[in-house]
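<context>
A single protein, sequence plus fold
<entry> Chain with its tokenised backbone below
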Amino acid sequence: MVALRSFRHSGPSFADLVPYAGLVANGIVLLKDGSLMAGWYFAGPDSESSTDAERNEVSRQINTILARLGSGWMIQVEAVRVPTTDYPARRDCHFPDPVTRAIDDERRSRFEQESGHFESRHAIILSWRPPERRRAGLARYIYSDAESRSASYADTAIESFRTSIREVEQYLASVLSIRRMETREIEERDGTRMAHYDELFQFIRFCITGENHPIRLPDIPMYLDWLATAELQHGLSPMVENRFLGVVAIDGFPAESWPGILNSLDLMPLERDEIRFDHIRRW
């Protein structure tokens, strides 16, 4: 027998470092530290045609909504740039005269023939760490009824998280166009079982590996850390299949900011898996 201990690496792998543990509810991911995570795709008003006052008002309303969350929350805003070839079909376009219709037909023909068209997608991710069980138990005993006291700690935490994100979604819907990342069930070809695909996990994996396609979850949706990083070869030269990953760190920031400061990134003719990772920790 050959002693292999000296050739084995006992340190944590990349899958051990990412925080994702399992899917515990529709569109809700459990993190390794006990936090719960949910996400939405959103789109704001057109910044090019908006005035500074209008952009400031949208920012104020969003800040007011997110400030209602209180302690224990983390907010992440992601912006990705993906290639696109979609153009509205002719039957879906309604123009009042033949001239404008001819202009749109020419644009559609040029758009479908050329390459290098991209669009930006924005996502907001909310994570919440429930209070410690001892503190939560005391509050539940004082302020809850007998039925609520008999509920498990996990059920109570998930239900509280659902209530909070439902309120945030309702408030944000009055300012932005927003859509929840949900878990979808698709029937298999033989009709004997249902396959589960989660949009939040697909987006997480897209941010890590750059692969944006649905991933079928196992029957017991756990060990998502390995599923999200299975194709990533980490090390000094990280790769996904035959593609190298490049990371750019920003070490200097402007002295002031204004609404739409990063709009120029949405006009660049290139694909980028993740252009912004802003977070506010309120642990």
Notes: Residues 5-79+119-254 form one domain. The radius of gyration is 23 Å. The helical segments are 14-17, 52-66, 98-113, 133-143, 146-149, 153-173, 199-209, 224-229. The CA atoms of residues 41 and 123 lie 4 Å apart.
